Structures are given as C-alpha cells and as structure tokens.
Amino acid sequence: MKAQDEQDAYGELSEESDEAETELSEARRPPTQIAVSGLYEVRKRGHHAGSAQEPLGTVAGIRPVRKELLRLDVDRQYPQMTASGTIHGAFATRIHWIASLSPSGSDSWTGSIWYKDGASVSFPYTTVEIRVVGGPSPGQRRAKVTFTGGGAPRRKRTFRFKSRYYHPAKFEFDWAQGAAATLTLDTCAHPNRPATLPCENLSIATVFRRAGFDVTVKPGGEVPINEAVNALWSDQEMHDAMQKYWSSFAAKPQWAMWIFFASLHEAGPGLGGIMFDSIGPQHRQGTALFVDSFIAQAPAGDPDPAAWVDRTRFWTACHEMGHAFNLAHSWQKTLGVPWIPLVDEPEARSFMNYFFFVLGGHAAFFADFEYRFSNQELLFMRHAPAQFVRMGDADWFDHHGFQEAGVSIDQPLSLALRANRESPVFEHMEPVTLELKLKNVSSEPKLVDRRILAESEAMIVIVKKEGSPARQLLPFARRCYAPETAVLMPGEAMYESLLVSVGLNGWEIADPGTYTVQVALRVGEEDIVSNALSIRVQPAASREEEFLGARFFTTDVARIIAFGGSRALTGGNEVLEEVVEELPDRRVALHARYALGNVLAKDYKELVVDPEGPEPLSVEVREADDEQAQGLIGAALTREPGSAVESFGHIEYRRLTDRYSDWLAEEGDEDAAAQAQETLYETLAARTVHGRRIRQEVLEEIESHRREFASKPGS
C-alpha cells in the first residue's frame, strides 16, 4: 500500500459484490431500520481531492487537525455498543479515544469515554453524544458528535459516512502443490453444530468482514513444487520463504497478510500452524497452515470425518490469522495487552480458543461454535489503536509481564531454571541456552501436556540486565500443536532446553554483564514461577572479537541462531563464516558451524518469487551439500564434545547429536552414526555438574541407540 492511514488504504480497496448487495438492501428499508455502524470521517478542507468538508479547526495541542475518524459500532454483525475515534494532526500528532454507548433516542447514543491514547492530555473530554441523520443512501448519512466534560468547552463535529467497515484488510492465500487449502466452508456440512447456526457457504474473507474489516483478496493460488523431495517443511524453509516473499513489500506496517497452506511440518502431525512474528523488520504479517497435520485426523466414530477435517482446517486458518491481528489465545488474555486488561475466556467458543481445551472437548466446542471471535476480541480488533492491530506494527501481544500472574503456594509442580555448568558464566557472543525442569513434588500423579516446556504459548520468559529494565523474551514463531497428555508420577520430572539470548526483539543477552532470567509457566489454571537465575557474560577476549561482535549482534544472525540456519539471510551467514574463520576456538564458533551446516544437510525447499515469469511463485529445491554439512556439524558436535555439551546444554546437545546420527545413517554411513553416539555417551558419562552425574537411564538409551547403528549391515 502507498499509505498507512485508513483513508488512503480505503482508496485502494473495494467491497466485494455480496457486501455491496447488503448495503443496497439497507437502502430499501425504512429509515428507522437502516444499519448505521461503520467508519465516518471528516477532513480538513482541501486535504483530499474533491473534498468539500468544513474546516476542522484545532484541538488543544493539535494544530491544525488534519482529519478525524469515527467508528460507530451499534448494529450490524455482533455490535459492541462502542464508539471510537482517531484525531490526526499535523506532524504525526494523534489522539485515540473509546467510549461505551447506550441509546438516548432514535438513532442517537451517549456514553462515557473510558480510554485515551496518544496526545490524550490535549483531549480532556469525558462524554460523547452521537446522533445519525440523513437519508437511506449511505452517501447521505451523517454522524453529529458532541464532546463534553473535563472542564473543556463543548466540541461539535459532523462526520460523513465512509464505509460499513472499520479498517481495510488485504489477504493473499497461496498453497503448496498438493496441499488442500480450505478457504470456504459449508457451515451445515457437519451434524454437530448449533441449532441456530445459519446454513451458508462461509468464506474466510467473510469471517473477517463480519469482524469489521473491508477484506479484499489478492489473487493467489497453487505454488508449483519443482522436483521437491517431500512435502515436509522445516522452520528454516518456512522462515526463509516468508522472508523472501515479504521482501517484495515496503518495510512498513500494512493492513495485509500472507497465508500459506503446506502439507506437513517436519516436527510431525502434531503441529497444525505457525504465525511467524518476524517478517523482515515487521511482525505478524504471515501464517503457515499444515493441512495434513492433526487437523486432518477426525476422531474415531465421528459421523462425518470429511466435514470434520474441512471445518478444522478452516478453524486453524482463522485462528492463525487472528494471531496476525494481534489476538492472544482465549485463555491467555490476562497475560497482558498493550491497551486494557482483559479477562481470560477458557470456555469461549471463539476462533482464538483451542477447540480441544474446553470442557467436553471438540464435540462440546463445535456444538456451540458460531464461527466468530469473542466480544473482547472484536472490541480490540475494531476499536484499539490501529498500531496495536495492524499487521507489521506492534509486536505480537506485547507488553506482557509477571505482575499479572497469580502464584499460589503449595503447588504440586515445581519449575527449576538452570545453566547446566559448574558456574553460570558465558563467553562473549556465546548464545545462552538454559534448561527447564518441571517436577511433580506432590504425592499424586499429575496430568500435563507432553510439550508444555517446549510450548512458548504457555510460558513467559523475562530477561533483566543489571541496571536495565526487565524485558520479555518473545519467540520468533507461534505454533499450534495438538494436545498430547502425559502422566507425571510423584517425583518424576520433565526437561527441556531454552535459548534465551535471542527473540523477536533481537538480542536480549549480548553485552558483557550480569543478567537475571526467570520463567512463568501456565499449567492448567495455575502459574508456576521458576527461580530467578543469575548469569554472567564475559567481556570480549580480544579487540578483534569485540569488532566482530558489532556485526554478530544483528537481527539476521539472531534469526539464524533461533531457527538453526537459513539460506535466505546471506548477510547473517557471512558473519557466521567470519566467526568460524576468525574465532575458531571460541564457543560461538560451535553454534556458527552448526547453523551453517544444518541447512546444507538436506535438499532445501525454497520459495522463488518471479513476478515476470510464467509462475509468479514456485517452490524449487536447492540440493544438499552432504560433505560440507558433515564437516561443519561434525566439527560443532564431536571435535570438542566437552565444550559443545556445556555450550549447547545437555538436552540440546543430545537432541542435535541424535539428529546428526540419524542423518548420517540415512546417508548410508552407519559407522559415523554409531561413532557420534559413542562420543555422546562418553561425553555425558564422564560429566558431573555440582556433583551430579547424568541419569543412568539416559546413558542406557544412548547406548541402545548406538547399538542400533552398529548392528546395521555395512557398519
């Protein structure tokens, strides 16, 4: 888009025929039955071509007022009985206000202004009165608004009706060859539904129109996969695809997003979708849906499995797109939002809830689900300041904090955060990986989700550098997993690694100094808070390392470290190559080698954008470089295993070595696979931290894995 404000954006968007028909039908009704909700505006004379509006004058502190918007929300779909407005002044000055309304007469409402943002000191008013006048045609409609209270003189404005929608939105849907993209749904195809649900062919675009957005769909379609080896997508491939695709857009916030349907993620069928937070310098602009994951597996005995799958794919797409509008999950709203406190809605029949989380599971959810967002969510989408909602603007669900987490005593579960080394001291530039331990300290078995420690949705991580404000570590991607319950017996524990150096906001741990890290985990209805772990980062070992650090601590390198490699971020890869060459004996070189080698270890799907070619989008395969991959990964994991296990951490080191061994075996080198497992065994068996040795069952599992490779023919 050529401009960020709603007016200029609306100039580029057009309503589709079904919505236009609705507006025409309203014009034929008696005046008292005409829906009046929507966007109204008034502009300074001469600001817009053809404008003949009255001058706007001034508001204290805003001289002059350039344009002013009113969003009236009292009828149409899911009315919130709310009005909001935005006053735009010269030099980017802005005021945003929200009021709750009650009817005060025929086509008139009054209410208290309960929220202000921007230059709010310049806007003291506490009450608004709104009266809609004019004929049945939208072009004749006017909203006469009076602001009072706050000790300020009465302020009156007349707004012209502009659109039945509050904001624009432009979607593009693309899907990999062979992946089913469910963009429309027969709402009555499945027998488990609300009795009052209208039967219709509902589109994703219509869902968001009913939420208040003027949706246009940019042409998209099937993306050919040229010589692709398989349909499994890695984090690196999805991240790089979105990086390259969105690089064709201006690096600024836009009411636009990309939705890509793929078959499966390499994590397996448990991952249904991802909302990628960081697309270039902007956030929340793209989502990926994995249509052959658990969302394509109807439960046993379902009366119409095909309709169940279509409905679940449709729900998943709207769910991930809701995240792109900055909506949190229904049960996470008390974690904090940037504008007002919200209430958790664990039983909400909303796109933003997990249908398998509610009491009664999916059957209970869909029996009452009306294909909509909750009222709290609609209030946010329609009336929050645009910068909180618009794609590419505010960070996903930002301004979280621990202060909202209610922690009870005598909890049955404990959460420990640790650095698995004798002293929590890290080298300069060394990525900081910590470990989490969730233990059942009660006398009874406890049910937990098997992925709870790896699931960022259930976790808040706070990092505080000494002398600086605390910051929340936000992950680059949000994932939608199927639930998988595990039983944690008394005294048993679950473990997971946690990379705390990098996140959505770049490098959280970089400069030398002391940092405190703490984690809060939502388990069921309780928040479990870990110990506050203090760690220290050493100064650079040389001036050369200090100079290289300035190029290392960038967003591109942060993404490469977080995703385990990238083929798109060539500048970041060049920095990692410098690290390997200039600092070969420093621990950061271990992480650099692994990231550089990991993306070379397999054929790599790459989204190719060619607007002038026969296929504007296509998926092509970049061949693996087995020899170089083995050299880099082997050097990272097995050349100095003592340093590697300490730097990556016990859990992550074993995970990476297992993955490396499996890859070697797939390439036909069982001897090397068995040797990697033997190195893993010897390294962990010889290791003690604070007098504790590796659990014997872990060593037995490693030895069993080694024997599997050693027993294969050719080893």
CATH topology of the largest domain: Immunoglobulin-like
Going by helix content, strand content and strand pairing, the class is alpha+beta
Strand content: 25-35%
Number of separate strands: 36
Question: Distance between the terminal alpha carbons, to the nearest Å?
Answer: 59 Å
**What integer value in Å does the Rg equal?**
28 Å
The averaged pLDDT comes out at: 81
Q: Spatial order of the strands in the main sheet?
A: 1-2-3-4-5-6-7-8
- Put simply, the count of helices is 17
In CATH, what is the class of the largest domain? Mainly Beta
- Return the domain count: 3
The description of the largest β-sheet is: 8 strands, antiparallel, barrel
- Which consecutive residue ranges, at least 5 long each, have pLDDT under 50? 1-32, 46-56, 396-409
Level-2 CATH architecture of the largest domain:
Sandwich
Distinctive features:
715 residues; alpha+beta; Collagenase (Catalytic Domain); Immunoglobulin-like; eight-stranded antiparallel barrel; six-stranded mixed β-sheet; 26% helix; disordered N terminus
Q: What would your notes on this structure say?
A:
This protein is α+β, with helices and mostly antiparallel strands. It has three domains: 6-163, no CATH class; 167-399, Collagenase (Catalytic Domain) (3-Layer(aba) Sandwich); 403-639, Immunoglobulin-like. The protein is 26% helix and 30% strand. An eight-stranded antiparallel β-barrel has the order 1-2-3-4-5-6-7-8. A six-stranded mixed sheet has the order 12-9-15-18-17-25.
